Amino acid sequence: MTNLMQFITEIGTLSTTLQSSWQQPHSSWVQTLMLFSLLVFITILLWRQRKTVVSINRAVSLASQANGIPTYRRALPQLTRELARARRYQRPLAVVVMTVEKGQLLNQEQNVVHHLLFPLVGKILQDALLRENDIVTYDATPNRYVLLLTESTKEQAIQSVERLQNSLYERTSTHLRAGIAEFPADGLTIEDLVSRAQAACNAQPVRRTLNQNSSIKKTAELPLRETAH
């Protein structure tokens, strides 16, 4: 939505400039033609860039669905039910937002590669690292995963995320940033928890290095946590 608004704003600015040029009696036809050509060029460029981003997000969404991972919007009723259960029985619950480290997206080619690798995150979550009762969803527009960890405090969620980040880095050399929100301290609804987790995710410093030693490898091979109900 932000990109679209910027697109409209820039087109409006160029259109105003072009209109002013036409209204000036001493304006040369060459200058007017150049401005018009520039307007057309920028319009095409911005449209292609927006179309590329939409195509990438759609490809990631389809790949995630192929792995059996529901979209965040489709899974929202299930997430709400789990939150209601946690409230009713006064059980811990955490929401995690995970996305590709922004510092890695240096150019369009790397951007495409990392976006296409992103479904592997869901595959790792689904196959190995989360318990059966935990919920993994994919939200295409911000290109993020939204996780709901049942029976999990914020401290337990932090340990789970660290192991996931290490495991994913070993498999793809890709860093993930993550934000965590805990019910009820950080919010009383799914929307509030996701919003707080996203804010925490955005506030995370850029991870440039990761200590790849034997202890990390052993930690990454462990399950996220023991099932405790």
Q: How would you describe this structure to a colleague?
A:
The chain has a four-stranded antiparallel β-sheet with strand order 2-3-1-4, sandwiched between helices. The chain is an alpha+beta fold and 229 residues long. The chain is built from eight helices and four strands. 25% of the residues are buried. It has two domains: 2-55; 71-221, Reverse transcriptase/Diguanylate cyclase domain (Alpha-Beta Plaits, 2-Layer Sandwich), CATH 3.30.70.270.
Task: Please outline the helices and strands.
Elements: H1 2-23, H2 29-66, H3 72-89, E1 93-100, H4 108-117, H5 119-129, E2 135-139, E3 144-150, H6 154-172, E4 176-183, H7 190-202, H8 214-221
Antiparallel strand pairs: 1-3, 1-4, 2-3
Helix pairs in contact: 1-2, 2-4, 2-5, 6-8
In short:
Helices cover 61% and strands 12% of the residues. With 229 residues, it is an alpha+beta fold.
Say which CATH homologous superfamily of the largest domain is assigned.
Reverse transcriptase/Diguanylate cyclase domain
What is the name of the CATH architecture of the largest domain?
2-Layer Sandwich
What is the helix/strand order?
A: HHHEHHEEHEHH
Largest sheet: 4 strands, antiparallel
Features:
229 residues, alpha+beta, Alpha-Beta Plaits, 4-stranded antiparallel beta sheet, 8 helices
